[in-house]
Design brief:
The complex is a heterodimer of chains A (369) and B (262).
Chain A lengths: L2 H9 L2 E5 L6 H14 L3 E6 L5 H5 L10 E2 L1 H8 L6 E5 L3 H13 L3 H9 L1 H6 L6 H15 L5 E5 L8 H11 L3 H8 L4 H18 L3 H14 L1 H15 L4 E7 L6 H14 L3 E9 L9 H6 L1 H4 L3 H31 L5 E5 L8 H5 L2 H4 L3
Parallel strand pairs in A: 1-5, 1-6, 2-4, 2-5, 6-7, 7-8
Antiparallel strand pairs in A: 3-4
Chain B lengths: L10 E5 L6 H14 L4 E5 L11 E4 L2 E5 L2 H13 L2 H9 L1 H9 L3 H13 L5 E5 L3 H17 L3 H15 L4 E8 L2 H17 L6 E7 L6 H7 L6 H21 L6 E4 L2
Parallel strand pairs in B: 1-5, 1-6, 2-4, 2-5, 6-7, 7-8
Antiparallel strand pairs in B: 3-4
Helix pairs in contact in B: 2-3, 2-5, 5-6, 6-7, 6-8
The chains are: A alpha/beta (369), B alpha/beta (262).
């Protein structure tokens, strides 16, 4: 049970779950969503994850870009009434991007047509550095403004390190490096003009005829939207500074990277984004009451075992002792990372989590129901 | 690594989501191949951070390199343009530098191109790929580029890369998973995606960190009184974990190799 998380759910409008891949971020986002619904919130859980982890952990085959209402499933699983409502969605990045570009372009249909017509756009919308992350933030902003939801829980896209999510949209906007694109539009400066011409000839030789002009069209069309992109990013950035937003970092004892954690927390501080604390997933919830194998060997129970049994037991105890030691170290490390004393431990479950019933087993570790 | 598939292709890609032990397995397998007398390059690809690219000789048969996209880009341009005045002009231009960073796919293409090219200098190049999503993006790039570019050397290199990757004799795709439901599910999805992309080269699946409890560990405790001793708690934990792994693996209907924990 944790009063702090209950308080968090009750006071925030947006919870952003960050963390590197493989720590169970998606599962915990879903569990937090269920906890919020049980507390009476109308909550929506958003994931941008090509691997469909959210769908899997909810026991669904698929999630679509429009919100799926999971409340009936939750009511069925709890066997009683649920005060709030829960839905989940997985925006389609290519689709969100298209809608987004159309919105930005407004009445300029010609521009939209030109942009979507380039071969570069067709091949790379999904793979653009930062597109997934930027679209995740866009979706979050849109849902935040939707009066049907009290709380948005954002499961950030899986990435090798945690700061990538925060930096990606800027990478995306860097694409519009003004000086560079201006050269494209108007290589008028006399010093560079001949150089550019030669350069483009080489580029054309490397890539075949037609690509360079396609690249021009693509870059110029996007560049025309630059101001709107940057404006929009600023708006999302402002939302993330607000008091009713909280950033959580999900980690696990086995996957914790100290470097990445320190880096992430200091980046949040630097950007002035409200960091809440850590959720440590899959801890070993064992209280052994002994501190080493020597102590174990002194117990009566142990001495009653046969020689073979003793060997077997000792070998496996080593494994667990190491794990417990590591966990202690992780806890100490995390509390040294921030002055906020918010670290919630979630013990590893004996069942695999793959539907709402099994998710419900985590909820008591998050809040008191 | 007795349970490891015997791979000796020119290119061996290790893939899987973060934290499944790709790096460790890639290192171990590289050493093993090198100890058999093969000339091996272990190639690490990072998704974000750019480290200095330096080729290190680990032992007489084994080399190690962490790729840097800017260096790979330069190497590629030098290789293609050949004439110094030409490539110096091209590489030092600000617009080139901008395009190298901003144009979609360039980073992925030059990294993959470097790996592909190095196969000519070694018996095997073992690649420790970035986590699932980005690894797929990388492998998609030559397909995108060969379709995108109407001609020229980049397009023909992309086409040749595809043919190398599609040949099981030249390239092995290895997917690593853990014995838990979600990771297994994700690995199956990765395998499906790879099969769609490269239909002629079926990936190998390896399940890492399988808890291999000796027979009877549960039985010992079953016969003892159910007291609160640490013995009991630990045995229960281990038995549960093994049952969970068994359950996760029971859903697998394709052949796989398992590697024990520790």
């Amino acid at each position: 049970m944790n009063l702090k998380l209950k308080d968090l759910i009750e006071t925030k409008r947006v919870i952003v779950c960050c963390g590197s891949g493989g720590v169970g971020k998606t599962t915990l986002s879903a569990a937090l969503g269920i906890a919020a619904a049980l507390l009476g919130k109308r909550v929506v859980v958003v994931t941008i994850d090509p691997a469909k982890r959210l769908a899997t952990s909810l026991g669904l085959k698929n999630l679509s870009a429009t919100a799926t209402d999971l409340s009936p499933l939750l009511i069925e699983a709890t066997g009683g009434s649920v005060k709030g409502k829960i839905s989940a969605l997985m925006p389609d990045t290519a689709q969100t991007f298209e809608t987004f570009v159309k919105q930005m372009a407004g009445t300029n249909e010609h521009l939209v047509k030109k942009l979507f017509g380039t071969s570069i756009y067709k091949a790379f919308t999904k793979d653009f550095a930062g597109t997934n992350e930027y679209m995740a933030m866009e979706k979050m902003y849109e849902l935040y403004q939707n009066p049907n939801y009290d709380l948005v829980i954002l499961d950030t896209p899986p990435s090798p390190n945690t700061r990538l999510f925060l930096e990606a949209p800027h990478l995306f906007v860097d694409f519009f490096d003004e000086k560079m694109v201006k050269w494209f539009i108007n290589p008028g400066s006399k010093i560079i003009a001949s150089g550019i011409k030669k350069l483009l000839e080489i580029l054309e030789k490397l890539t075949g005829k037609g690509f360079v002009s396609d690249l021009f069209d693509f870059t110029l069309s996007l560049f025309e939207l630059r101001t709107q992109f940057v404006e929009n990013l600023k708006k999302v950035g402002e939302l993330l500074h607000q008091d009713n937003v909280a950033f959580l970092m999900v980690t696990s004892p086995e996957r914790l990277s100290k470097e990445d954690t320190i880096d992430f927390v200091s980046l949040l501080n630097e950007l002035n984004y409200p960091f809440w604390g850590f959720i440590v997933n899959r801890t070993l919830s064992l209280k052994l009451g002994i501190k080493d194998s020597q102590e174990l060997q002194n117990t009566q129970n142990f001495q009653a075992l046969s020689k073979d049994e003793k060997n077997l037991v000792l070998k496996n105890f080593e494994f667990i002792f190491k794990k417990l030691e590591k966990e202690k170290e992780v806890e100490n490390f995390l509390s040294s990372c921030t002055t906020k004393n918010n670290t919630v431990l979630i013990p590893e479950q004996s069942d695999d989590i793959h539907n709402i019933q099994t998710l419900l087993k985590i909820v008591p570790h998050l809040i008191k129901v | 690594m007795n349970n490891f598939p015997k791979l000796n292709q020119k290119l061996i890609f290790f893939m899987g989501k973060g934290g499944v032990g790709k790096t460790t397995l890639a290192h171990t397998y590289s050493k093993q191949l090198a100890s058999l007398g093969k000339k091996v390059l272990l190639c690490e690809v990072l998704q974000v951070t750019e480290k200095e690219q330096k080729l290190l000789q680990v032992n007489p048969n084994l080399w190690h390199i962490t790729l840097n996209a800017t260096d790979c880009f330069h190497e590629y341009i030098i290789l293609k343009l050949k004439i110094k005045t030409l490539y110096s002009m091209f590489l030092s231009n600000k617009l080139t530098k901008y395009l190298q960073k901003a144009a979609p796919g360039v980073r992925e293409m030059v990294l993959l191109g470097k790996i592909w090219f190095e196969r000519l200098h070694y018996d095997s190049v073992i690649v420790d790929m970035p986590s699932t999503g980005y690894a797929l993006t990388m492998l998609h790039t030559p397909f995108n580029y060969s379709a995108l570019f109407p001609g020229g050397p980049v397009s023909s290199d992309a086409t040749e890369m595809i043919s190398t990757f599609s040949d099981p004799k030249q390239t092995a795709l290895v997917v690593i998973a853990l014995a838990e439901t979600m990771p297994i599910q994700e690995s199956l999805e990765l395998i499906e995606n790879l099969k769609t992309l490269i239909p002629t080269n079926s990936p190998h699946l390896i399940v890492n960190r399988c808890l291999n409890l000796p027979q009877g560990v549960q039985d010992i405790f079953a016969t003892k009184p159910q007291d609160s001793s640490p013995l009991h708690a630990v045995a229960q934990y281990l038995a549960q974990k093994q049952a969970k792994q068994k359950q996760a693996l029971s859903g697998l209907n394709i052949p796989f190799y398992s590697i024990p924990e520790g």
